[in-house]
Amino acid sequence: MVNQIENKRIAYIGLMTAVLCILGPLAMPIFISPVPVSFVMFGAYLVSYILDKRDAVICMIMYVFAGIIGLPVFSGFQGGIGKLLGPTGGYIIGYVLLVAIGSYGIEKANGKTGLEILSMISGTAVCYLLGTIWLANYLKMTFFAALMIGVVPYAVADFVKMILAIILGRKIRKRTGIMN
């Protein structure tokens, strides 16, 4: 029984990592920022909702590692350490913290939608903070200027992605029996 549960857990981690690798490259550049609109945020919210905190972090680390070793899983079908060291590197590292905070809070929320959203917002805020600091340093600009090009254009869309991830995540949990 324990091996069956462990095998199922590993399968869900692998499946969600694959989802991230499919969504990650899908991005739309916008003219006001070097940071594209990325679907990996939706994937991160979904991972946070579906997997427990340990498995969510493992999943996101696997995704980031896949990109670091050169698989084209980052925005624009790019991979390699250069992408991590570029203007979006802080956001990529921030994804790990986003899912850690988001999934932990979702576990504690006991199905209360408001607390689940607050958990995802908290994780996103940390991801945004790390990404903005990184972007400001990379582009040699103020934190505020980096915030205006690296966060403000994306906040509303990311909130919509959170809501969609909760809706879809609940359906996936119900059908698969996954419970945080």
Q: Briefly, what is this?
A:
The protein has 180 residues and is mostly helical. It has helices at 2-23, 40-50, 53-68, 81-85, 89-109, 113-139, 143-150, 155-176, and strands at 27-28, 37-38.
How does this model look, in words?
With 180 residues, the protein is mostly helical. It has one domain: Arp2/3 complex 21 kDa subunit ARPC3. Helices cover 73% and strands 2% of the residues. It contains eight helices and two strands; from the N terminus they run H-E-E-H-H-H-H-H-H-H. It has helices at residues 2-23, 40-50, 53-68, 81-85, 89-109, 113-139, 143-150, 155-176; strands at 27-28, 37-38. Strands 1-2 form a two-stranded antiparallel ribbon. A hairpin with an 8-residue loop joins strand 1 and strand 2. Helix 1 (2-23) crosses helix 3 (53-68) and helix 2 (40-50) packs parallel to helix 5. The two termini are 19 Å apart.
Distance between the termini: 19 Å
Q: Quick check: average pLDDT?
A: 93
Task: Estimate what percentage of residues fall within beta strands.
Answer: under 5%
Indicate how many domains the architecture comprises. Answer: 1
Low-confidence region ranges: none
Task: Using the 3D structure, state the CATH architecture.
Answer: Orthogonal Bundle
Largest sheet: 2 strands, antiparallel
The CATH topology is given as Arp2/3 complex 21 kDa subunit ARPC3
Total DSSP E strands: 2
Number of helices: 8
CATH class designation: Mainly Alpha
